[in-house]
Write a sequence for this structure.
């Protein structure tokens, strides 16, 4: 009797479209995917364990290396968790600098996500156009912090350094030009019919499922769930800014992509407002904290909206100068949880489109 | 109409063709490196008091420093950074109270051999005390003499103050 046989296809870990060292073992029936088994851990460095033998300040550079595309937001989550534990008040100017550098980081991350997604689908020009602005964002961050990606800019009680002279004007200049650039991305990638044919109604995610799987970030919001921590539970000084939360309708790959593009517009708006407001705020950028940090016994959980979703830090203190335990809720890892069911029934060519739309970064998945 | 988006995309690409180039031909021309850039470390040896605050601030134990006591001051004899483990986070530079450790703008730190990677900022002999230097002795001997004298000095001072020097260290 004639019958077809299922077979395995190894996708990754050495594959440019997995965005790092990530493996999916696909079970295929012809070209249709029957089952997809994600295998992660190739980039595991044990950051959570390393944090136990470092002092509270020394953990900051390690948090950079999780989501290295938006390092400032990773710093911020950890630093705010420790501040919450110790009850440290952060100076006003530091808060603004955190917002500006954090949103610049988000911009850099979304620019990469947008560009690389175009590349995944097969549009090379879109990738280069996005990287042109990303380069300028990185140059600004480099000027502020000294590093391009692993910034280590946030400190417990403030930020490492004040903005150099003329830096804020440069940021403003880029932000004023940004809407035109975003219109370019829309013309080049979003409006492209081939791109739309590849992404629309592919990998659809229902809002209930997204909530049940605890997904977050643009992946959740593309399904139409209005949940952005910056709005729902404003941390820092996010309640002072006027911005919208972009939502999708269908929860498909296209919506997830377009959600990020519109989030960039909102980030630009936030930075513009922050630059306007920071002009009137002077003073120190670091609170008076003791040199040796010894938070009181206890634990704290703090979560912020990172570029990939909700990143949460659980810090346990035993009263010494080193954290007893640091656990990180990594959005990339949790967003990956639904990958198997999302891929089922689609073609091999859609694997890259769906995986790219989740926008994972392997440093964060494996931690 | 199908294909409108494609035409618009081509227009943007075509427009981009006429704009100024964003990239530079790297080895021949370079983008300026910002002032705060985290590059190769520079140590101002005269300012350094060998307090080892930088070594303690480092998350990865990159900095190895050795010191000797010359007279009343600590003297830095060796300052080696295992740069292969360095994360360039800048915590050491921030920890320095005397503003002795700096970043430079030099990012070209690659080496052909593993043994060349550690960044030796200081490696020198501790000087003997001024009066012994005049005797013209070099090498290890004056160091030992300095050490011996250093140990002898507090003991003699305490003996002069009427304390029993033998009790120390027991």
């Amino acid at each position: 009797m004639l019958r077809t046989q299922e077979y395995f296809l190894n996708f990754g870990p050495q594959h440019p479209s997995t965005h790092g060292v990530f493996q999916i073992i696909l079970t295929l029936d012809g070209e249709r995917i029957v089952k997809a088994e994600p295998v992660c851990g190739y980039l595991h460095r044990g950051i959570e364990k390393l944090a136990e033998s470092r002092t509270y300040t020394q953990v900051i550079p390690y948090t950079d290396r999780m989501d290295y595309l938006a390092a400032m937001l990773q710093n911020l989550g950890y630093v705010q968790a420790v501040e919450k534990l110790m009850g440290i008040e952060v100076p006003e100017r530091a808060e603004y600098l955190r917002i500006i550098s954090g949103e610049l980081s988000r911009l850099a991350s979304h620019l990469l996500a947008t560009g690389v997604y175009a590349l995944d689908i097969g549009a090379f020009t879109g990738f280069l156009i996005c990287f042109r602005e990303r380069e300028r964002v990185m140059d600004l961050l480099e000027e502020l912090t000294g590093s391009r990606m692993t910034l280590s800019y946030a400190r417990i009680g403030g930020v490492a350094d004040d903005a150099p002279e003329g830096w804020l004007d440069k940021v403003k200049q880029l932000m004023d030009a940004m809407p035109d650039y975003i219109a370019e991305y829309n013309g080049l990638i979003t409006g492209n019919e081939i791109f739309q044919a590849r992404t629309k109604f592919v990998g659809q995610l229902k809002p209930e499922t997204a909530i049940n799987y605890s997904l977050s970030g643009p992946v959740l919001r593309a399904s139409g769930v209005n949940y952005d921590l910056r709005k729902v539970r404003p941390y820092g000084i996010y309640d002072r800014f006027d911005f919208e939360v972009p939502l999708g309708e269908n929860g498909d790959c296209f919506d997830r992509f377009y959600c990020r593009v519109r989030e960039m517009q909102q980030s630009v708006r936030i930075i513009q407002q922050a630059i306007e407001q920071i002009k009137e705020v002077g003073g120190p950028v670091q609170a008076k904290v003791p040199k040796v940090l010894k938070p009181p016994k206890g634990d704290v959980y703090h979560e912020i909206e990172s570029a990939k979703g909700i990143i949460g830090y659980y810090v346990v203190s035993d009263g010494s100068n080193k954290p007893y335990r640091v656990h990180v809720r990594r959005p990339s890892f949790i967003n990956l949880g639904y990958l198997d069911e999302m891929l089922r029934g689609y073609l091999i060519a859609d694997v890259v489109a769906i995986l790219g739309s989740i926008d994972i970064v392997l440093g964060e998945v494996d931690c | 109409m199908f294909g409108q988006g494609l035409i618009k995309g081509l227009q943007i690409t075509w427009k981009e063709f006429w704009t100024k180039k964003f990239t530079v031909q790297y080895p021949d021309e370079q983008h300026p490196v910002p002032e705060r850039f985290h590059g190769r470390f520079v140590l101002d040896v005269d300012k350094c008091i060998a307090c080892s605050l930088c070594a303690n601030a480092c998350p990865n134990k990159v900095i190895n420093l050795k010191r000797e006591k010359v007279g009343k001051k600590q003297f830095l004899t060796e300052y080696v950074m295992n740069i292969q483990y360095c994360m360039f986070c800048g915590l050491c530079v921030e920890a320095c109270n005397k503003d002795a450790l700096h970043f430079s703008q030099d990012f070209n730190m690659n080496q052909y051999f593993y043994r060349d990677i550690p960044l030796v900022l200081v490696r020198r002999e501790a000087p003997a005390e001024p009066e012994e230097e005049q005797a013209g002795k070099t090498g290890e001997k004056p160091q030992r003499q300095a050490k011996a004298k250093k140990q002898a000095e507090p003991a003699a001072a305490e003996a002069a103050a009427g304390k029993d020097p033998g009790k120390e260290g027991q």
User: Anything to note?
Assistant: The domain at 56-326+342-362 of chain A is CATH 1.10.645.10 (Cytochrome-c3 Hydrogenase; chain B). The interface with chain B takes residues 54, 57-62, 64-65, 125, 129, 132, 135, 139, 142-147, 150, 152, 160-161, 164, 184, 187-189, 191-194, 196 of chain A (CB under 8 Å). The mean pLDDT of chain A is 90.
